[in-house]
Amino acid sequence: MNKCTNKEVAFFGKITAGITHEMKNVLAIIRESSGLMGDIISISPEAIVKHQEKIQNSMVRIKDQIERGIGLTDRLNKFAHSTDETLSKIDLREAIEQLVTLAQRFARLKHVVLKTMTPDHEGPPVTLVTRHVQLQMALFASLECCFTVLSAGGEINVGIRKLEGKNVVNVVCKGDLPGQSEFVRNISESENWPALQEIAACLEGSAKLDETAHGIVLSFPDEIRR
Amino acid sequence: MEGMKILLVDDEEEFVKTLSERIEIRGLKADVALSGEQALKAMDENLPDVIVLDLKMPGMDGMEILRRTKKAHPEIQVVMLTGHGSEKDENEARRLGVFEYLHKPVDLESLLRTVTNAYKNKFKSSMVAVSFA
Question: Model pTM?
Fold first, then answer.
């Protein structure tokens, strides 16, 4: 297995471990909520009336968790299918939305809010022909770089725009941040920064620091050479 | 096991609160903490006998709470209950003195059997400490 494949495998492992961990929580809540209903029903017929509110709350919880589980498996399924083709035509906006959802748990563990600057489904599609897996790796590596400089309560906003024929992704940090020079030093010394550079180059794009905005600017061509 | 004090620590609020309700239906008392920081605060106010602890939480994680708990109160028994399946973490938790390492979702009766055994172990450990004193 070459170095690049090893990194892809590690990336897939990290994302799937995070999502399946969430799925276990979904199943645990469903198990306990249905268990609570079972407990009440087994006490006595009177208990069902007495604890009607608890039963109703449990039913709402189960319904909500099923929706959460469907959302997670849908994202995980799309993520798994990103390996179907080496090169594919993708909507960058959708790819960002997908990655931001997959990375929510990692942001939450850092007490950081992660969101897209443009709400879902807004704006025209930004299509590019690229390596989908590596594109996701680049986006995730940029988020991991930001995690290293953000403290609890911070925020990461991810947005896209077209600039001089390039597709530009802005990953901007907000919150209690170090000064510009320290921000640059911390990110460029983080272990994810060289990896991000490498992936961006593999996508025939670039990853640069924007110290004024406290962010990372990723740039990708419309179509990469085959 | 009347009088046994259980502390449930998990950032999945709906999970931990429902679990607490089910435990209380069985006549036991289970307090809830939604973060590592809350767990340490709860321990300052009222020392539990057994802690059921999630591993991956925002802020202070379960491994750090286990480390601090075992250092300050080695008699407190800790049961790790996690959706995180890493063998490395399980080995580290065992090295730090976790009583048992369980995976979510767990059957409640099985969890309570483990918690009860942990509670019994607390007193067994105390008796050994006294006999050596």
Answer: 0.85
